[in-house]
Amino acid sequence: MNDTLLFMRQLISRPLQVSAMAPSSRFLGKAMAKDLGPHTGRVVEFGPGTGRLTEGILNAGVAPENLTLFEMNPEFVTYLRDRFPGVTVHLAGAESAPQMVEKGVGAVISGVPLLSMPMALRRTIMAAAFEILRPDGVYVQFTYRGRPALEESQIKSLGLTWKQTAFVPLNLPPARVHTFRRA
Q1: Residue 97 carries which DSSP code?
Q2: Contact of 116 with 16, CB cutoff 8 Å
Q3: What is the pLDDT of residues 51-105, one digit of tens each?
Q4: How many of the other CB atoms lie within 10 Å of CB of 13?
Q5: What is the pTM of this model?
Q6: pLDDT value of position 88
Q7: How far apart are CA 68 and CA 87, in angstroms?
Q8: Order of strands across the sheet with 175-182?
Q9: Closest CA to 18 of 6, 30, 33
Q10: CATH number assigned to the domain comprising residue 42
């Protein structure tokens, strides 16, 4: 089954979990992974879906054995395991990453639809990312709105800074990429 058909099937059966109109574009995958490469070390992806961002990460030069995915949809997990040999794929939520991944990760790339989640869960997911990231590691998140997924006060309470690092009009809908770092 191709990824678009799988995505549409899951969108119909699990609309709140998928929470997007279409799979991410290859342009968004490239924008999310633009600063990654073999130098990044280990990378974790939250919410890979059908793997469009995963493709971008691997195309940027991250080795499959250095990439770990966290996906909650069992059908996506099966598809990802078949599509990306050598990549570790966990059937688990992003918030469980600190229990499953050793600290010292270079980057967390997130396709999780944070803006459709309760604020407390958004904060938990971002805190989990920074628990596994090395001190200079980055958390990269896209949204379909012009603002980051957390309120400014929550970003500060986590000791983070952020900036918009890309606008991707060739995505449905257009997306903005926000990069978070420790302050």
Answers
A1: H
A2: yes
A3: 999 999 999 999 999 999 999 989 899 999 999 999 999 999 999 999 999 999 9
A4: 11
A5: 0.91
A6: 98
A7: 6
A8: 88-91, 67-71, 43-46, 105-110, 133-143, 175-182, 160-168
A9: 6
A10: 3.40.50.150
Residue 96: give the domain boundaries.
3-182
Residue 150 in contact with residue 123, Cβ under 8 Å?
yes
What is the band of 181 on the pLDDT scale with cuts at 50, 70, 90?
A: very high
SS3 at position 49 = coil
Number of folded domains that form the chain: 1
How confident is the model over 99-137, as pLDDT tens digits?
999 999 999 999 998 988 899 999 999 999 999 999 999
Region 21-49 average pLDDT? 93
Residue 149's nearest CA partner among 173, 172, 179, 169 is 179
Dist. CA 49–CA 104, nearest whole Å:
24
* Cis check: omega of the bond before 113, within 30 degrees of 0: no
Nearest to 39 by CA among 142, 137, 139: 137
Task: Take residue 158 and report the two structure tokens written for it.
Answer: 């986590």
